[in-house]
Amino acid sequence: MRKIICFSHGNLARGMTETVKMIAGNFDNIDYYCAYVREDEDIEKEIDRIILENQENELFIVSDIFGGSVNNEWIKRINKGEKIHLIAGMNLAFVIELLVLINDSKMKGAEVVQKAMTSARENFVYCNQLQMDLEEDDF
User: Fold this and answer.
1) Alpha helices in 25-126 (DSSP H)
2) 2-120 maps to CATH 3.30.2090.10
3) Which Gene3D superfamilies match (predicted)?
4) Which of 62, 66, 35 has the alpha carbon at shortest distance from 49?
């Protein structure tokens, strides 16, 4: 199975996953982990547990920010298996596209990630500039 795990500092991952399910549907192969919300938490052990529980799965880990502690802990583990894809910079357009692609595509993992990233980039729009450009075109 191909599985997405949104992984963040605080509750961002939960909110992201719930929003994706609200928009795209209740897929079984997307989950989340909210780091640093419990005092007794050991992120390294939690990541190792997730890897152990998903040995048969191809994992797409979507972390909140590149260089953050969550992302850095996963970076230490991505070379331990070709079935782990780590993507930093979680956003809604990317996670929805990734979810659709891993469920509907026979593309390899790296291809899926690249296609979802390309699609997500197209959703970055500075609306003020867009509005100014449209107003200039009206004249």
Assistant:
1) 43-53, 69-75, 92-104, 109-121
2) no
3) Phosphotransferase system, mannose-type IIA component
4) 35
The residue with tokens 């004249």 is 139
- As a whole number of angstroms, the distance between CA 89 and CA 129 comes to 23
Greatest Cα-to-Cα distance within the chain, rounded to the nearest angstrom:
62
Name the helix (H) or strand (E) containing 58: strand 58-63
d(CA 73, CA 78): 9
Hey, where are the domains in the chain? 2-120
Q: Which residue has the tokens 């959703």?
A: 123
Contacts of 134 (CB under 8 A, 6+ apart): none
Compute the distance between CA of residue 131 and CA of residue 129 in angstroms, rounded to an integer: 5
Report the distance separating Cα 87 and Cα 65, nearest Å: 9
Closest by Cα among 12, 29, 17 to 95: 17
pLDDT tens track for 44-66: 999 999 999 999 999 999 999 99
The CA-CA-CA angle for residues 87, 16, 122, to 5°, reads 60
- Per-residue pLDDT tens over the stretch 65-80: 999 999 999 999 887 6
